[in-house]
Amino acid sequence: MPHCAAFGCNNNSNGNFFRFPKDKIRRKAWIHYCRRENFEPVTHRLCILHFSKDQYEVDPEKRAKLGYLNARARLRPTAIPDIIITLSPGEDLPIVPCVSKITTIKTKRVRGAYHKRRNAEVNTYIVCTLISINVVTIM
């Protein structure tokens, strides 16, 4: 049974877990979000609780209203976790400084218009959006 890799999250019951992306820039943002030292995910995953509605291709609540209860939620190609979960009302997770410099990564030549647009969209996405994070309290 998978467990959520985010610091302070003990979710292991919900079936909606997402693997870390292979794209190096997004993967770095997800790792930063987990707030763990020397963390290199291999089989780790993040649960559905860490993503706001706008991070999904189709809103999970709308899909449930249409009767697709067993369908898996799908994240957008640019999705980055943006909801921090606190353990109790007065307890916050440690603050980790935002990554301010994005290094250029040498990759294979991208072919096709779709892949070029997707890579351009991901590369222009600012990793530091983690600063404007929603906070949810779980008791």
TrEMBL record:
Keywords: DNA-binding, Metal-binding, Zinc, Zinc-finger. The keyword DNA repair does not apply. InterPro entries: THAP_domain_protein (IPR052224), THAP_Znf (IPR006612), THAP_Znf_sf (IPR038441). Residues 1-84 form the THAP-type domain. This is THAP-type domain-containing protein. It comes from Sinanodonta woodiana. The lineage of its organism: Eukaryota, Metazoa, Spiralia, Lophotrochozoa, Mollusca. Pfam families: THAP. One of its GO terms (molecular function) is zinc ion binding. It comes from the Eukaryota.
